[in-house]
Amino acid sequence: MEAEEFYRTWATETKQAHIRRELEELAQWESRHRDSLKVYYEELFGEPFRREPDLVVDPALKVQADEFRNHYALLRIASTAYVSEMRAAELYEALEKASSGDARKMFGELKEMEQDHMATAKKRYVSLREDVVGFRAF
Predict the structure, then answer these.
(1) Could you tell me the end-to-end alpha-carbon distance of the chain, in angstroms, rounded to an integer?
(2) 58-72: pLDDT as tens digits
(3) Quick one: residue 28, left, alpha or beta (phi over 0 = left, psi -120 to 50 = alpha)?
(4) What is the pLDDT averaged over residues 108-130?
(5) Range of 21's domain?
(6) CA distances, 132 to each of 41, 74, 88, 118 (Å)
(7) d(Cα 3, Cα 58) in Å, to the nearest integer?
(8) Does residue 108 fall inside a structural domain?
(9) DSSP of 53-113
């Protein structure tokens, strides 16, 4: 939820349409994760999910949008997305290994989603970097 809010807030604070579109797409990725987790929660606990307002998963997700107002903004977005997806994949992998049954399956599916997003973010980063610096570095 915080990742979605991070990307959406960042999108509203940017003036450049192409950057806003990229951030809104990242927010959509995160909303799909949120929706999947809510379904699992309701299946496991038999009640709708209610967000705990005092729970903060990662304070680093608070937007500092002015850091991203230069011509490298899209590169920063792509690298931020890659690292975020990588960390989430690592978390879900650890949870998958520590779980069993339906929980193990759920965390495995979430890990795979994050790994797919990671691959997409890396492709975007490499492509954008080529455009900015003029050559392929990887």
Answers:
(1) 32
(2) 555 454 545 555 545
(3) alpha
(4) 86
(5) 2-49+63-133
(6) 43, 10, 28, 21
(7) 9
(8) yes
(9) TT--S-GGGS--GGGG-STTHHHHHHHHHHHHHHHHHHHHHHHHHH--HHHHHHHHHHHHH
